[in-house]
Write a structure and sequence with these properties.
single chain, alpha+beta, 5-stranded mixed β-sheet, 4-stranded mixed β-sheet
């Protein structure tokens, strides 16, 4: 049997915590005040997905590696699923209106639809919808 874990916490370095909280709140993510201070906040995407926004000096305490300049390099693309094509467009449009930047053009593969943006710190986010009838049940 494959390993099954319950939750994911994505840790992202940010330059300005207040601005990042405001940005992700405009998209529709909730901030958990229980895990928020001057160094970090927990943005709730779902019951199982959380994004920890950590100011860069605090983020640096978790790694010996240099923090990547996401405007020049990429280490990861955070991909989240939406409930519909319309929700994909809604989330990305909210991100762009909140100050995010476009990433890739919309991609429509019939059974799968996606669009992407860059957040205030240039982290790449992809939002996708996959038609449930196209997913073969195992």
């Amino acid at each position: 049997m494959a390993l099954q874990l319950d939750k994911i916490f994505v840790n992202l370095p940010v330059k300005n915590l207040k601005n990042s909280i405001e940005f992700f709140s405009k998209i529709g993510f909730a901030s958990n005040p229980q895990f928020t201070d001057d160094n970090a906040t927990c943005m709730v995407i779902s019951d199982h997905i959380y994004v920890m926004l950590l100011v860069e000096p605090y983020y640096q305490t978790f790694t010996n590696k240099e923090i990547a300049d996401a405007s020049k390099t990429n280490e990861v693309i955070v991909c989240v699923s939406a409930d519909s094509r319309e929700q994909v467009d809604e989330i990305v449009n909210k991100a762009l209106e909140a100050g995010g930047k476009p990433s890739n053009d919309k991609q429509d593969h019939g059974f799968m639809y996606g669009w992407s943006f860059q957040d205030l710190d240039n982290h790449l986010w992809e939002v996708m919808y996959m038609d449930p009838s196209a997913v073969q049940q195992q």
